[in-house]
Design brief:
The protein folds into two domains: about 5-180, 3-Layer(aba) Sandwich (Rossmann fold); about 190-275, N-(1-d-carboxylethyl)-l-norvaline Dehydrogenase, domain 2 (Orthogonal Bundle), CATH 1.10.1040.10. About 45% of the residues lie in helices and about 15% in strands. It has eleven helices and eight strands. The longest helix has 20 residues, at about 35-55. The termini are far apart. It binds acetoacetyl-coenzyme A.
Length: about 280
């Protein structure tokens, strides 16, 4: 299927990154959020990223302007009737995603594929809220989106082969490498990553090591680009907790219980980089 118009729901750290890579690949992008100030903040982040590439000599100023010129913003979800493919990258809350998919299903043209960047909510459960479950799929980008090469493409039970192939090809058009996953809690990426992060939080909780030492062990001992606690701050501690809860609910296995300290940080509003405080201060 030929994709011309591409929609992104949410202009936060994942949404604006997705909009940037889509526009860089040559697509016309419509990025939506609930308030214009959120859209403006997303556009400012994209502009900052592209300016950095220009100053490093990796991007021509004219190309930066062309990329920015391909992105428009809206606070009206109904405007998504113009696009052929949507990625929803709103907050990781099931009720919110259900509502967005019900609305998108009403607004979008019948051929439009509705994908979600959810990190762990079952694709089948989201698909069931629409009248086009065969056209619902997971398209899971990694943070920071412009840098990370992976897109996890998740097939729900009703996802059609055509929807899967279109999403796979689109990931490649974005310069990413797709990996296929089936619809189980946490899919592949977070099924493996989050228990590691949660275990690192348990190491803080039980005073096995200090934050810096835990991260040093994983960085220098395992060659990870950043330690698990710094990574948790980058992802957002609220998102980490939400994913652990999805794993715990989905498998009913105590090995996925969220560390009480993670919950305490989230309750205190210490969500990582986005609030200026998490395991580190920013
Ligand atoms: N946005 C855009 N570009 C960014 C960026 C951001 N937020 N952060 C860094 N970059 C760019 C830099 O500009 C730089 O670009 P050039 O190569 O063109 O110069 C490049 O990335 C490398 O950056 P730095 O030199 O500043 O720093 P670094 O080498 O330490 O890399 C990092 C930073 C890419 C974040 C690296 O530490 C890393 O890979 N960390 C692990 C990230 C990770 O695991 N992400 C997955 C999280 S899980 C997830 O997202 C899924 C989920 O559902 C929770």
């Amino acid at each position: 299927m030929e994709i011309e118009g591409f929609g992104v729901i949410g202009s936060g750290q994942m949404g604006n990154g997705i909009a940037q890579v889509a526009a860089t690949s040559g697509l016309k992008v419509l990025m939506s959020d609930i308030k214009q100030e959120f859209c403006d903040k997303g556009m400012a982040t994209i502009t900052k990223n592209l300016d950095r590439s220009v100053s490093k000599g990796k991007l021509e100023p004219a190309e930066r302007d062309a990329i920015l010129g391909r992105i428009t913003t809206t606070t009206d979800l109904g405007a998504m009737e113009a696009v052929d493919f949507v990625v929803e990258a709103a907050v990781e809350r099931e009720d919110l995603k259900f509502k967005i998919f019900e609305d998108l299903d009403r607004f979008c043209k019948p051929h439009t594929i509705l994908s979600t960047n959810t990190s762990s909510i079952p694709i089948g459960r989201i698909a069931a809220r629409t009248k086009r479950p065969d056209k619902v799929i997971g398209m899971h980008f990694m943070n920071p989106v412009p840098v990370m090469k992976l897109v996890e493409v998740i097939k729900g039970l009703p996802t059609s082969e055509e929807t899967f192939q279109t999403t796979w090809s689109l990931s490649q058009k974005f310069g990413k490498t797709p990996a296929e996953a089936n619809d189980f809690p946490g899919f592949i990426a977070n099924r493996i990553l989050m228990p590691m992060i949660n275990e690192a939080v348990f190491c803080v909780y039980q005073s096995v090591g200090k934050v810096e030492d835990i991260d040093t062990v994983m960085k220098l001992g395992m060659n990870h680009p950043m330690g698990p606690l710094a990574l948790a701050d980058l992802i957002g501690l609220d998102t980490c907790l939400a994913i652990m809860e999805t794993l715990y609910d989905g498998f009913k296995d105590s090995k996925y219980r969220p560390c009480p300290l993670l919950r305490k940080y989230v309750e205190a509003g210490w969500l990582g980089r986005k609030t200026g405080k998490g395991f580190y201060d920013y």
